Amino acid sequence: MNLLTNRRVPSPYPSRLVIASRESKLALWQAHHIQDRLKRLYPGCDVSVFGMTTRGDQILDRSLNKVGGKALFVKELEQALERGEADIAVHSMKDVPADLPAGFSLMVAGERADPRDAFVSNDYASLAELPPGAVVGTSSLRRESQLRARFPHLNVEPLRGNVETRLRKLDERSYAAVILAAAGLIRLGLEHRIRLCLPASESIPAIGQGALGVEYRADRDDIANSLLPLADPATMLAVLAERAFSKRIGGSCDVPLGCYATCNGDTLSLTGFVASPDGTRMVRHGLQGKSSKAEELGTQLAQTLLADGAAEILAALNAAA
């Protein structure tokens, strides 16, 4: 993924752009957000959204790590790009695997929304208030491992489905609380459901959480040029570092890991962890460096964790698979 910082509007701009998107409310919000930005940039361009249902949306009775991981959310959209049915696909960056298939490129569009995890409950104000045995729903091993490490007395259970489905299950009393991405709730106008945003220092976010990605075929230079004005340099640098960390670790839905980077001028700070699913083993470190070395810093942090015990955790996970 190349860093795009040139904000000049290309000329001539495209006459037509088709955006592939999942059909969940959140995915469509994200696609229409990019659609609106492109329409403002290119008033003469016909920008439309092509909704699709992915296997990740269809399989709800099993954890993602059991059925192919987050790639299930993007594969069908990539196939639409290959067939020429769409020009770009809009993703939540946390759903995009660290390694893109050959022939595709990716950029981060716009400023990052709130990257934190959100605590949502009808009866409790925080995780600390939950009684022993209370059931907490989450869809990710990343959240699960951090929850179990801090609150071993809680019962963490899988929770799949779109945002509305997860909230409905909470309202039906299947869970005492659920943990969701704050950005998704805010984008859907559901911020009133958030009881507390968990500090990134306590619940390290997913790779790219809160950021939007736009994927396109690598041979479409016209598309790459058209997307240049959408780039936010600070967000792109942070996500580049996080994705480099995940790539070096070999991150997937099978691995409880997280990494969060922030860019402040010429300085980039990042923190990452790798854990066992039950949270009993966790390796966590942070570092700072020059923001121009974002990918190198992400790789360096991953190597530090691997040398400090993360490699053993990964080996145990692979042996158990």
What does this structure look like?
34% of the residues lie in helices and 24% in strands. By secondary structure, it is an alpha/beta fold. The chain is built from ten helices and 13 strands. Helix 9 packs parallel to helix 10. A hairpin with a 2-residue loop joins strand 11 and strand 12 (267-275). The longest helix has 27 residues, at 294-320. It folds into three domains: 16-111 and 211-231, 3-Layer(aba) Sandwich (D-Maltodextrin-Binding Protein, domain 2), CATH 3.40.190; 117-198, Periplasmic binding protein-like II (D-Maltodextrin-Binding Protein, domain 2, 3-Layer(aba) Sandwich), CATH 3.40.190.10; 245-320, Porphobilinogen deaminase, C-terminal domain (Double Stranded RNA Binding Domain).
Largest sheet: 5 strands, mixed
Number of continuous helical runs: 10
User: What name does CATH use for the topology of the largest domain?
Assistant: D-Maltodextrin-Binding Protein, domain 2
Query: How many beta-strand elements?
Result: 13
What structural class do the secondary elements suggest? Answer: alpha/beta
Q: What general outline do the C-alpha atoms trace?
A: globular
Radius of gyration: 19 Å
Q: Trace the largest sheet across and list its strands.
A: 2-1-3-10-4
Summarize the amount of helix as a percent range: 25-40%
Mean pLDDT, rounded to whole units?
Answer: 91
Strand content: 15-25%
Distance between the termini: 30 Å
Low-confidence stretches: 1-9
Number of domains: 3
Features of the shown structure:
321 residues; globular; D-Maltodextrin-Binding Protein, domain 2; Double Stranded RNA Binding Domain
